[in-house]
Design a protein that fits this description.
Shape: elongated
Order of helices and strands: HHHHH
Number of helices: 5
Number of strands: 0
Strand content: under 5%
Helix content: over 70%
Distance between the termini: 18 Å
Structural class: mainly alpha
Largest sheet: none
């Protein structure tokens, strides 16, 4: 078992929690983006914003590396890369435009959200492991 993972949780539970955290991160990213542009708060609009990035997230989670150690930073980098690249390319394909400012904000925001929870989880795991010793 990789050192980042706790012996207290079975691997299947870690995978489920990591996937849930990534899905929540993409939802938060889309919701904050829509709110910052005063876009309507309707569910269909939010789902339309989430959709291209959810496709990218699903592609990342289809890789064995992400499923093997989903809470690790390496997996986080794969998730960030696939979510951002595929999401932005699909957005470009559907909207016909992709402003550079949006690309930068999207990549930075997704990076903070998708890598941030992993970094916090690693810090907590190290602190717990240090106390157990």
């Amino acid at each position: 078992m990789p050192p980042e993972q706790s012996d207290a949780l079975p691997h299947s539970r870690i995978v489920a929690l990591a996937l849930a955290a990534d899905v929540v991160a993409v939802i938060v990213f889309a919701a904050i983006g829509r709110a910052s542009h005063d876009e309507a708060g309707d569910l269909l609009g939010l789902l339309g914003t989430i959709a291209p990035f959810a496709v990218g997230l699903a592609a990342a989670w289809a890789t064995p590396m992400v499923r093997a150690n989903p809470s690790g930073l390496r997996a986080g980098a794969v998730v960030l890369g696939a979510t951002a690249v595929i999401g932005l390319l699909l957005r470009l394909a559907f909207l016909g435009r992709l402003p550079l400012a949006f690309v930068l904000v999207a990549v930075i925001s997704l990076g903070v959200l998708l890598l941030g929870w992993r970094g916090l989880a690693m810090l907590v795991a190290r602190r717990v492991a240090h106390r157990v010793r």
